[in-house]
Each structure stands twice: as structure tokens, then as C-alpha cells.
Amino acid sequence: SKLTNLGHLEMTWRSRVHFHPLLVRILHKSRLRYYGKPEKKMDMPYQAYFEVADGSGMMSMVLWNSLCPEWYHSLKVGTVLLLAKYAIKSSYPFKTHPTPGDSQMKRFATIEICLNVRDPPTEISIIPEEMVKPEWGLPEVKYRFITRSELDDLPHNHSCDVIGLVTFVGRAERARKREHSEDFWLYRWAHAIDGTSDQPFILELFATSQPDVFERIHPMTYLVCTQMRVIQDLTENPSRTVYLTTSNESQIFITGWHKGQPYTKDAKVKNFIQWTKSQSEADQIKKTVIGGYYPFPRPPDSFLKY
Asked: Entry's PANTHER family (predicted)?
């Protein structure tokens, strides 16, 4: 059928009601958001953002309501989609934006693609990777992997991806989303090493929309975390501690989930795998820890400083 592209959509969307089909690749995926309220009677108040791209650039795509339980888990980073009967709306101004792996890619930020059950009922088709043709010009998924030796020099809030061997994972803890609120964030701390430094990555992992992965992070697993944010302890603490925290678009993968993921082709991931082959599993197991209370960032060593 006749296709359009994201660049053409941005120029013509106000003058059209119906749009030609789109062929795009998913580059980023947000966590699933529940926006239900007791006073509003909605069957499936869910929403999820994706960043999709074709040869012309990148745009946000929003999956709404009952399409979320039907499609959310099938739409992975790297998946190629054929979209028909979708809607175009002005962008929601307050949403978070992932940092693209390709800094040269053009971003269309004024509009977003809306996928709904009706008005109009969107048609979503997943194109198997072996059927994707090079002449379609779809961009590859690119990452921003860093090693532990590079982390200390990165600025606060810098976005990056990491891979490491888990040496510590703490118990799941809860933090209130807002003071006096009854909603909680669930998170856990983990340490992962990659052989480039004596220090581990310290990772604050909030529960994303991947409960099966979040609950199974164990020592000795290969852990990949994407779209992490660098947190530099900005106080005048001489033992300045740098750690990484998840963002709205973070994805977490552990041993058993890596097969077929786009990051397996990344050079730093391949280097890490080579390093693990040189390690003695028995020696590493002796250094691993699981569970317990992990006070971090550490409180000052005296009450006066506290």
C-alpha cells in the first residue's frame, strides 16, 4: 500500500483526517502508566509511550487503554511495525524524553501518534525481523554503553546504558511517591562489575513494567540496564559517590532474556562477554551478597555532620 513517513506527517497533519500507513521501528519504550481514579469509570486506564523512527526521524507513539494489555509486551525495542488508521495529536508537553542513541537523528516533537481501540480503531502489524528489507531505510537501534572506568567523569543526569555481572542485590524497598501519599515506588539496590574498575556500578533499580525480570535479579547474572541516569552526589562529601538510577524509559534484562536483543551487537557488550570468559566463577561467587538493608547514599560518619 502507499506509505507515508514521519517527516511528511509533521508537515501535513493539520490538513488531513486520514493518514497513509506508517512503517517504523521502535527505538525506546516507556514503563506502563496507570492513570485510573476512583471517581472516573474507565475500563482500562493505561497508557504507554514509545519512540518510533523511520528514515526521516523519530516521533512519540502513544498506546492507549485496552490496547496496552493486548500489545504492550509484544512491542519491544527493535520491533518493526506497520501502522494503519492511527490518529495524530499535538504532543503532551510534560512527558519525559529518552536520550537517543543516535545524536544526529531528527526529532519531531510537536506531534505524536495515538493508537486507540476506536476513533479510529488502529491496525497494528508486527513485521518479523527476517522480512524487514534494507531499502525501507529503517534506522537500527543504537545504544550508549559505558564502562565503570568511564562513569566517574560523566556529568549529573547524563543518560547511558550499562552491562555488568551482578555481585550484590538488595531486598525490594518502598518509597512514597509523594509525602502523605498512599502510592509507593518499589525499588532495589544492586552492584554490578565489568572488569574495568575496582569499583562496581551502584544501581538504583525501580520496578519497571517488567516484574518477571525485577524479581529475578540474582548475583552472578549478566545484567543490562538501558536509559539509566547518572546521579552525582552534589553535596560537599569528600567520598563523592556516583550511582545510576532508572528513568521512565529504562529497560532491564538478565541472563535468559538477552537472546535476540539489539544490544548484543554492541562492541562494549562483546568486550564484557570476553572479560567474563576470563573469570573464575568460583572466585566471583565468594564475593557475592544478597538481601539485607543497604543504606545509600551513606549517612555522614558523625552526628555533627548529619
From this structure: RPA-RELATED PROTEIN RADX
Residues 229-241 have pLDDT tens digits of 999 876 655 556 8
Exposure string (b/e) for 10-36, b if CB count within 10 Å is 16 or more? beebeeeeebebbbbbbbbbbbbeeee
Rounded CA-CA distance 276/84 in Å is 45
List the grid coordinates of 62.
Answer: 502513544
DSSP-assigned beta bridge partners for residue 145: 161
pTM: 0.91
Q: Do 153 and 285 fall within a single domain?
A: yes
CATH number where 51 lies:
2.40.50.140
**pLDDT at res. 177:** 85
Of the candidates 97, 46, 100, the residue with the CA atom closest to the CA atom of residue 72: 46
Strands 242-246 and 201-206: parallel
Our count of domains for the chain comes to 2
pLDDT digits (tens, 9 = 90+) for 76-117: 999 999 999 999 999 998 888 899 888 899 999 999 999 999
Asked if the structure places residue 296 within a domain, the reply is: no
* Domain-embedded: residue 229: yes
- 10 Å CB burial of residue 6 (0-12, 13-18, 19+) is buried
- Identify whether the C-beta of residue 243 lies closer than 8 Å to the C-beta of residue 202: yes
Please give the residue range of the domain that contains residue 235: 148-290
Question: What's the first-to-final CA gap in the chain, in angstroms?
Answer: 66
Contact of 152 with 242, CB cutoff 8 Å? yes
